[in-house]
Amino acid sequence: MYHCLVDYLQRERVQELYGLEYSEESVAVVSLLHDVCKVGCYKKGFRNVKNDATGQWERVPTYTFDDPLPYGHGEKSVYIVNGFIRLTREEAMSIRWHMGFSGTEDPRTVGQALQKYPLAFALATADMEASYFLEGDQ
Question: What is the mean pLDDT of residues 69-84?
Fold first, then answer.
């Protein structure tokens, strides 16, 4: 995710036409901490899956999701991170809106946030690249 954001921000068009420039610290903070809300939510477990070849049920490892602090996704990450470091407004908004239009929020609100805070747009773009192209179906 970090490398995707760095690469996006180094594009000629992004720098020259849009004028987006952010400190190395801001880039690292938003890219590395945008999903801190997931920490402690995934628990190891097992489930039964039928083996297609044998027709037998097999116990396989899996993960379950149990959120002890159901505070939303991006906003929860902002809440947690702000307990340790002081985020700038654009850093906070970038982490909050990093899901872009793939979340459940009103698309008009998402669009307003991405337009007002260009780092949020860049982070959402980098997150989608990392999710869809680098992580695949993991």
Answer: 95
